[in-house]
């Protein structure tokens, strides 16, 4: 009777996961390769002086959330899809291997699970497929979700100033509060009942400002705005056992699904 009275519903309803360097470790080298590709794009396609590229790349990343967003804000014109294809198309995806431990953890969680990444849809698909996690999430909130092509590429001829037109090309991305709030709305989530997992301290700060419960991943110590710290995403059950509150013990056993349902991009 006591077992029947236990609630099988956690106080959390939705889990928002960053992807890169969160679902897999930074040590796999994709982050470093991505930065190298961005610098080469700036040098070869935007003809920015070589001596300025590394400093400019880092400064724009810090100020605008992503180097791409910073380049757009400065007025550089380039095709978003071409940029993503160049930056992500040559990444060492072979470094990513199926992660059955993480897969079983994710599938055993009763909450809705959604990816929230600044990356583009093609990159998200590659990463999730390589990790064997493509059917572990309800959906993906990515670059295209927050920056629809029609909104990104149309200039309003009725706008009076160049500055107003530049706003039409502003990239919406983490860590801005606007991006966090947009993701929450797209996910149709209650921030007070949602946990946000991310490896970036500045994204954690904005997640907390948006009202989310926050977890810094890849750190054993708390950072500003973080409610929990995970040195690895694999430690999630030890740090957050409440996610399985009221769940039966056999849900911790390996979970196998007979069919694969691909994660959908949320729009």
UniProtKB/TrEMBL annotation:
Q: Name one Pfam family in it.
A: Hydrolase
User: Which species is listed as the source?
Assistant: Heracleum sosnowskyi
Q: What CDD domains does UniProt report for this protein, alphabetically?
A: HAD_5NT
Q: Where do transmembrane segments lie in this chain? A: none
Q: What is this protein called?
A: Suppressor of disruption of TFIIS
Q: Where is the signal peptide?
A: none
> InterPro entries in the record, alphabetically?
HAD-like_sf (IPR036412), HAD-SF_hydro_IA (IPR006439), HAD_sf (IPR023214), Pyr-5-nucltdase (IPR010237)
């Amino acid at each position: 009777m006591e077992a029947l009275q236990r609630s099988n519903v956690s106080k959390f309803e939705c889990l928002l996961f960053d992807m890169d360097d969160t679902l897999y470790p930074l040590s796999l080298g994709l982050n470093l390769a991505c930065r190298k590709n961005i610098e080469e794009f700036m040098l070869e396609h935007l003809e920015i002086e070589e001596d300025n590229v590394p400093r400019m790349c880092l400064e724009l990343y810090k100020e605008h959330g992503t180097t791409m967003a910073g380049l757009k804000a400065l007025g550089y014109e380039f095709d978003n899809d071409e940029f993503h294809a160049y930056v992500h198309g040559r990444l060492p995806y072979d470094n990513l291997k199926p992660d059955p431990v993480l897969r079983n953890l994710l599938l055993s969680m009763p909450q809705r699970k959604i990816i929230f990444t600044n990356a583009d849809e093609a990159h998200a698909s590659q990463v999730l497929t390589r990790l064997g996690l493509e059917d572990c999430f309800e959906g993906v909130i990515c670059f295209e979700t927050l920056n629809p092509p029609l909104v990104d590429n149309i200039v309003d001829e009725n706008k009076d100033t160049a500055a107003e037109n530049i706003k039409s090309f502003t990239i919406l991305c983490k860590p801005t509060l606007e991006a966090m709030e947009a993701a929450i709305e797209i996910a149709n989530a209650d921030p007070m009942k949602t946990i946000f997992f991310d490896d970036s301290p500045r994204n954690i700060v904005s997640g907390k400002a948006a009202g989310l419960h926050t977890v810094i991943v890849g750190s054993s110590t708390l950072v500003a705005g973080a409610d929990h710290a995970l040195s690895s995403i694999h430690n999630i059950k030890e740090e957050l056992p409440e996610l399985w509150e009221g769940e039966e013990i056999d849900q911790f056993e390996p979970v196998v699904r007979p069919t694969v349902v691909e994660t959908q991009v949320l729009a």
